[in-house]
Amino acid sequence: xxxxxxxxxxxxxxxxxxxxxxxxxxxxxxxxxxxxxxxxxxxxxxxxxxxxxxxxxxxxxxxxxxxxxxxxxxxxxxxxxxxxxxxxxxxxxxxxxxxxxxxxxxxxxxxxxxxxxxxxxxxxxxxxxxxxxxxxxxxxxxxxxxxxxxxxxxxxxxxxxxxxxxxxxxxxxxxxxxxxxxxxxxxxxxxxxxxxxxxxxxxxxxxxxxxxxxxxxxxxxxxxxxxxxxxxxxxxxxxxxxxxxxxxxxxxxxxxxxxxxxxxxxxxxxxxxxxxxxxxxxxxxxxxxxxxxxxxxxxxxxxxxxxxxxxxxxxxxxxxxxxxxxxxxxxxxxxxxxxxxxxxxxxxxxxxxxxxxxxx
Amino acid sequence: xxxxxxxxxxxxxxxxxxxxxxxxxxxxxxxxxxxxxxxxxxxxxxxxxxxxxxxxxxxxxxxxxxxxxxxxxxxxxxxxxxxxxxxxxxxxxxxxxxxxxxxxxxxxxxxxxxxxxxxxxxxxxxxxxxxxxxxxxxxxxxxxxxxxxxxxxxxxxxxxxxxxxxxxxxxxxxxxxxxxxxxxxxxxxxxxxxxxxxxxxxxxxxxxxxxxxxxxxxxxxxxxxxxxxxxxxxxxxxxxxxxxxxxxxxxxxxxxxxxxxxxxxxxxxxxxxxxxxxxxxxxxxxxxxxxxxxxxxxxxxxxxxxxxxxxxxxxxxxxxxxxxxxxxxxxxxxxxxxxxxxxxxxxxxxxxxxxxxxxx
Lengths: 360, 360
What we know:
Two copies of one chain form a homodimer.
Chain A: H1 6-22, E1 28-32, E2 39-42, E3 47-50, E4 54-58, H2 65-83, E5 88-89, H3 90-97, H4 112-126, E6 135-136, E7 142-151, E8 154-157, E9 166-167, E10 176-181, E11 184-188, H5 191-199, H6 202-206, E12 208-212, H7 219-232, E13 236-239, H8 244-255, H9 264-267, E14 272-276, H10 279-284, E15 292-293, H11 296-306, H12 309-312, H13 315-327, E16 329-330, H14 343-355
Parallel strand pairs in A: 5-6, 11-12, 11-13, 13-14
Antiparallel strand pairs in A: 1-4, 2-3, 7-8, 7-9, 7-10, 7-12, 15-16
Helix pairs in contact in A: 1-2, 2-4, 3-4, 8-11, 11-13
């Protein structure tokens, strides 16, 4: 997907529609159907992806006309952004598209969900990601390690950024890796755990890169992880809570999600492995007393995840799910702090990585 | 508060209790009462602060004993952290304190709210902030500008960090400003707006520093802003949505909050000014069509804020509240994008700052 020229793709779209008009045909866009019925788990690529069904959107069709206009309006906004080399957020794009159709009192979009949806369609139509179309997602995350990058004209050394680290932007398509000295990447869902490892200089001692978001992984971070693994062959280890939500973070990173099925090529991490916290850690590190009892919603979520296509026939994971169910409890990464402040960086992680105790 | 030696303060606390025991007295800690009845708005310092009421906590008192133990346990955890020069998050501290009292089945703390509360008490007892006690809050935010700092042995130039910027750590007590070239600081609640200004090199063109969190300001960011204004006399301009929540962000930054009344000295920004979005911008920049209609909860929140001591007699603010009420609507910063991608950085902000259109 990286090699597409988004500007050219948008121009092609425009030309195609002008041709339709010149031929006296109904201007029509055709693209993959993005609905649950067309989301499949591709056993070969091991990702959630779109099937063969397509949908059409025509101008002279009462039920299509508004969506058709919205799609073209977003294409226009994106083209302007690309032309002037600026980026905008989803919210900005919504406001840019929210204008009144002349001689009417109808707005092109009234709600951000409309412009978001049109943009997702545009990703499919152009085969370019939102980021390539210069439209940014949220940012929120930090990284540290022995890595030098070039970004927006600056040379940035991820090992020289104090206690804060580099703030990962929402769009990492244009950063360039100048030097990457690391054996692996640890991605963790919690900022506080990242600060722990960073203060302990874990990345320096273990020769790795540490990355965090806060909660669900943002698109910027996913792309950063994907670029590190694809361009520098680094394995990705996921450090998350022992709870259905932690499993879900791993699942989305590795296999994709229904919302992003059309982006599985640039957004999934085939070689991500789950490092912990696992059910086995409970006994191995004597963590039972820090169990947090399941609520009904946790049990429901666990059952859903256990039924995912990619986990269904996976014995190692089913064993984890079963143990969690039997515990009727979850466990946080930070419960390791009960063993001492630096237990996680000096004992738990080095031990587990050395022994190769990963779930896949 | 900066000059306190937290280790010494903790030692003093321990010695005082040992003296009580040696004298055959009931070991007792006395400190300011932290309850709504003792939170006052100090007209002189213009902050929410604690009054004169105090509370006692004694070991031989059935209703005090557990809290007494919790407070001492957190003091112990903090002392260990200070001794080994490590930092921990609130969640870590909870797990460190969550141990079973020997010969019983009672845990010192069962829930993080208990260790958090004990820590807040410890802030009062020692007159040291949580950060000075090496216990970190959440981090989440970015900064850029013509500033060089030293942090954890690294020299970091905020003007050379690409599109990401420096990720503000949860604890900024130990950073050192080496060079600060700026006329003012703009703090904005939205990452996406920060990315807009950063891409447009706003800080370079306007000679300022741009800071963001996402939503409510974290403690790390507040302290960073406070240090910039105190140590470098920089005015702070707040850029927030035109809604009661945006006003609240400003209010907490400038006057403090009930939860942080005991920290008003290090956490409030006396000279913060509200830059926008204001009710006047609606007409001046023709933004009416981007109004978002009030829900009941918005109106309730607006009424509460209008009743705050520090806003009650402030005519400029009451005028804003009145206009918002009459509009029955709120407005987002990003609605400025409807005027063009760089409208905010090339027109709106320079114009307003030049004209000195601030609310105070």
